[in-house]
Amino acid sequence: MFECKPSGHQTESVLKNLIFLIILLLCCCQLIAQDSTGTRQEVWPEVQLYYKLNNKLRIYANYSATKLKSSSYTDGGYGAYLDYFTYPSRLRKKIDPNLRDSTRGYFLWLRGGYMYSTTPADSKDPFKLYTIVTEANTRFYLPYHIILTNKNRFDWRIIDGSFEPRYRPRLTLEKDMRTEYLYFTPHIFGEYYVYFNQKGLNRFRLNAGIQTKFTAHIEFETYYTHQFDNGKNANALNAMGLALKFYFK
């Protein structure tokens, strides 16, 4: 759990940086919305809650949505998960506890949970999605304090009564950094989606972002995602993600 406690002066400075960052992101979203190439443009707001039970168990809950260009929210989802961490890394002591919670010092990270998504009643393409999520992550500690995470996620999905499972492998590179007042973690990852029952729908995404710590329990993440057109059923996509994260124990 975080140990940093900013002073009043530091808190004021952090709030100014947060306001500046939000304005910058809104400008970026506006620029994305002005794109005329025909690529799908979206904004993904999200709120995440983490509750650390002990050094190996953590509860994670989130609410996420999708906003299309020139429209209201088209879908929203709720999720609740249990994280389990094991096999502590011998390099975990090198991770600054002020940057992110100490669970990142474990080699193996397992997650299981449930997610529900739906569209508004007046949506042009309504759906209801029920998903059982199973996930296994392994972490490797590279030179220069870079962390490589190999994620293997299976989504056992039921969409309007149809069983549509998919597999999502992801490779992430991240590095914890700090300034005099701020702690932050830039990252980049590539993720592939394999749809077992829908041939030609498979897709590949690249993501780059940064997570910034503003208080002892609050972090803010912003990222940009590009989905490549596979020439069949998955069109190109650009998305700006905004995630507000709360950590408790």
SSE topology sketch:
Elements lengths: L7 H26 L6 E13 L4 E12 L4 E16 L17 E13 L9 E15 L3 E14 L2 E2 L2 E10 L1 E2 L4 E13 L7 E11 L4 E10 L9 E12 L1
Parallel strand pairs: 1-13
Antiparallel strand pairs: 1-2, 2-3, 3-4, 4-5, 5-6, 6-7, 6-8, 8-10, 9-10, 10-11, 11-12, 12-13
Defining key terms:
single chain; mainly beta; eleven-stranded mixed β-barrel; 10% helix; globular
Order of helices and strands: HEEEEEEEEEEEEE
Helix content: 10-25%
How would you sum up the global shape? Answer: globular
Secondary structure category: mainly beta
**Largest sheet: spatial strand order:** 1-2-3-4-5-6-8-10-11-12-13
Look at the structure and give the mean pLDDT: 81
Portion in beta strands: over 45%
**Number of folding domains?**
1
The fold-level CATH name is: Porin
Our Rg estimate from Cα atoms comes to 19 Å
The strand count comes to 13
Q: Class in CATH? A: Mainly Beta
CATH architecture: Beta Barrel
End-to-end gap = 7 Å
Q: Largest beta sheet, briefly? A: 11 strands, mixed, barrel
Number of H/I helices: 1
- Can you tell me the CATH superfamily? monomeric porin ompg
Parts with pLDDT < 50 across at least 5 consecutive residues = 1-7, 31-36
Can you put this structure into words, describing what you see?
- A hairpin with a 7-residue loop joins strand 10 and strand 11.
- The N and C termini lie close together (7 Å).
- The chain contains one helix and 13 strands; from the N terminus they run αβββββββββββββ.
- It has 249 residues and is mostly beta strands.
- The protein is globular and about 50 Å long.
- The N terminus is likely disordered.
